[in-house]
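Backbone shape codes:
===
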Amino acid sequence: MKIAIASDHGAYELKEHLKVYLAAQGHELSDCGTYTPESCDYPDFGAAAARMVASGTCERGIVLCTTGVGISIAANKVKGIRCALCHDTLSAELTRRHNNANVLAMGGGIVGPSLAERIVDVFLTTQFEGGRHQRRVDKVMALEKD
């Protein structure tokens, strides 16, 4: 799967860990930054990853900052993105099954590498259920037209 991945300085180490983990599984990664642990601004990197998903260049995105909150807000400003902040595997499963989320946000100061791996695995392998959930996703996406 083609995955856009991005972080700010607060989750740089987690991003680098996940890049190795995902590459070992055969995923193709587009690293949207940051490229150093120096202080930087999460909207720049979250938006870059979200744009790659929205354009279809990447199938999914993973965005990371210290809490995951700021970068998830930034990613959700990009038209076509449904970014979900998940710090547990159940949330990752349900956001895929029910919301068809296309970008995952996590906090590097909240989850460690092992839990992040499990969350990512669930997010990438869980399929959207469609059905009644499609109607709700359509309503959410229609909000972008307001």
Observations:
- The helical segments are 12-24, 42-54, 69-76, 89-99, 113-125, 132-142.
- The CA atoms of residues 8 and 41 lie 6 Å apart.
- The radius of gyration is 14 Å.
